[in-house]
C-alpha cells in the first residue's frame, strides 16, 4: 500500500504543497450481479486525501483541526465525508491503543457521490490508511479491513478499495475473510451513470427481510459461477452469472430507464456484451464486455439511442492497485 510517486494535490487551489501524508484510494464497483455484498473490484477513478498535523495549520492561523473538500460538493455530503473520515482515523488509533491527534484533512475525489461506485468506502479506507501511516504501520492489512468493514457495514466495496483488483470477501462479526483474485482475462467496463442519486441506506430499505429457498439456491449457484468464470478467464460464462434475485429486482424499478438498458445489453450479447449489473446499491449500471472494441462499438451505438439522455456512459478499467500512500511524513509526526 505504498507508492514512490508523489501527487501534486489541489494545484488549482493555490499550488502544490509538500504533503504530510497523501493517500490515494480507487473507486469500486460491487455485487457484480450475483455476488451480493461479497464481490467487488477496483476501478480507475480515485479519491485523494491529504492529512497534515494540526500544528501546521495553527502556524498559519487556522483552527486546530479542519476538513476541506476541493470542488463543488453539497454541504450534507461534505459533513458526511468529514464524519466518516474522522471516525475511521479514531477507530484506527483506538485499535492501536492511542488517542487520535488533531488533523487538517483535504479531500479531492473523482468518484461521483451517491452513484454506487464506492465513494463512502474510499473515504473510510483513506482515513484508515492515513491513520496507519501516522501510527507507523502498527495495524495489519487484516485489521484495517476489519475496521473498514465495521464502518461501512459490508466488505464488498472496502475490500477492493483497500486491496485492489477483484476481491471476494465475507464478514461474520469482527472476522473478515478476503481473497484477491488475479484475472487471466480482464473484461472491459462501461458505467452508465444516471443523474438520479440512490443512497445506499435508502436502497437497502427496498430489500425484503427473507427469501424463498429456491431464490437463495439460485443466487448461490450464480455467485459461484461468477467467481469461477472470472478466475478461469471463461468470460463467455458471465451472462449466466450476472443474473440476480436478491437485490436487483427490488432496486431496478426505482431507476428510470434501467430495465430498458438491461434489455439493450442483452440484445448486444452477439456483439460482445457479456451482460450488465447494478453497481453496488445503484443507480449506476455497469455493462461488461469481452473486449474494449466491443465496448466502444456499444457506446457509439448507444449515443443514438433514446436512453442516451438518461445515462452518461463512462469507460472504466479494472485496477490491480488498491489504497496507496503517495507521500508520507518522517517518523514522529503524530507524537
Automatic annotation (TrEMBL):
It comes from the Bacteria. ATP binds at residues 112-122. It catalyses: L-homoserine + ATP = O-phospho-L-homoserine + ADP + H(+). Keywords: Amino-acid biosynthesis, ATP-binding, Cytoplasm, Kinase, Nucleotide-binding, Threonine biosynthesis, Transferase. Pathway: Amino-acid biosynthesis; L-threonine biosynthesis; L-threonine from L-aspartate: step 4/5. GO terms for molecular function: ATP binding; homoserine kinase activity. InterPro entries: GHMP_kinase_C_dom (IPR013750), GHMP_kinase_C_sf (IPR036554), GHMP_kinase_N_dom (IPR006204), GHMP_knse_ATP-bd_CS (IPR006203), Homoserine_kinase (IPR000870), Ribosomal_Su5_D2-typ_SF (IPR020568), Ribsml_uS5_D2-typ_fold_subgr (IPR014721). One of its GO terms (biological process) is threonine biosynthetic process. Belongs to the GHMP kinase family. Homoserine kinase subfamily. HAMAP family: Homoser_kinase. This is Homoserine kinase. It comes from Brockia lithotrophica. The lineage of its organism: Bacteria, Bacillati, Bacillota, Bacilli, Bacillales.
Amino acid at each position: 500500500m505504498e507508492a514512490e510517486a508523489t501527487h501534486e494535490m489541489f494545484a488549482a487551489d493555490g499550488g502544490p504543497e509538500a504533503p504530510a501524508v497523501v493517500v490515494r484510494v480507487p473507486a469500486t464497483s460491487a455485487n457484480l450481479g450475483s455476488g451480493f455484498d461479497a464481490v467487488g473490484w477496483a476501478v480507475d477513478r480515485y479519491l485523494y486525501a491529504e492529512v497534515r498535523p494540526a500544528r501546521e495549520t495553527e502556524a498559519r492561523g487556522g483552527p486546530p483541526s479542519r476538513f476541506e473538500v476541493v470542488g463543488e460538493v453539497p454541504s450534507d455530503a461534505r459533513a458526511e465525508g468529514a464524519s466518516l473520515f474522522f471516525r475511521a482515523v479514531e477507530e484506527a488509533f483506538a485499535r492501536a491503543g492511542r488517542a487520535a491527534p488533531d488533523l487538517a484533512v483535504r479531500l479531492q475525489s473523482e468518484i461521483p457521490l451517491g452513484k454506487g461506485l464506492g465513494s463512502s468506502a474510499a473515504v473510510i479506507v483513506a482515513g484508515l490508511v492515513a491513520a496507519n501511516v501516522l501510527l507507523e504501520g502498527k495495524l495489519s492489512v487484516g485489521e484495517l479491513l476489519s475496521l473498514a468493514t465495521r464502518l461501512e457495514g459490508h466488505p464488498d466495496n472496502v475490500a477492493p478499495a483497500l486491496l485492489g483488483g477483484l476481491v471476494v470477501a465475507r464478514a461474520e462479526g469482527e472476522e473478515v475473510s478476503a481473497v484477491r483474485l488475479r484475472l487471466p482475462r480482464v473484461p472491459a467496463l462501461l458505467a452508465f451513470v444516471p443523474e438520479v442519486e440512490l443512497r445506499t441506506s435508502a436502497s437497502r430499505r427496498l430489500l425484503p427481510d427473507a427469501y424463498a429457498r429456491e431464490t437463495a439456491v439460485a443466487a448461490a449457484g450464480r455467485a459461484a459461477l461468477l467467481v469461477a468464470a472470472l478466475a478461469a478467464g471463461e468470460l463467455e460464462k458471465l451472462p449466466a452469472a450476472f443474473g440476480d434475485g436478491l437485490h436487483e429486482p427490488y432496486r431496478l424499478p426505482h431507476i428510470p430507464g434501467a430495465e430498458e438498458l438491461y434489455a439493450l445489453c442483452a440484445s448486444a450479447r452477439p456483439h460482445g456484451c457479456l451482460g450488465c449489473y447494478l453497481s453496488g446499491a445503484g443507480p449506476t449500471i455497469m455493462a461488461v464486455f469481452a473486449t474494449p472494441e466491443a465496448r466502444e462499438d456499444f457506446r457509439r451505438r448507444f449515443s443514438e439511442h433514446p436512453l442516451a439522455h438518461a445515462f452518461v456512459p463512462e469507460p472504466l478499467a479494472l485496477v490491480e492497485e488498491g489504497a496507496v500512500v503517495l507521500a508520507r511524513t518522517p517518523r514522529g509526526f503524530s507524537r
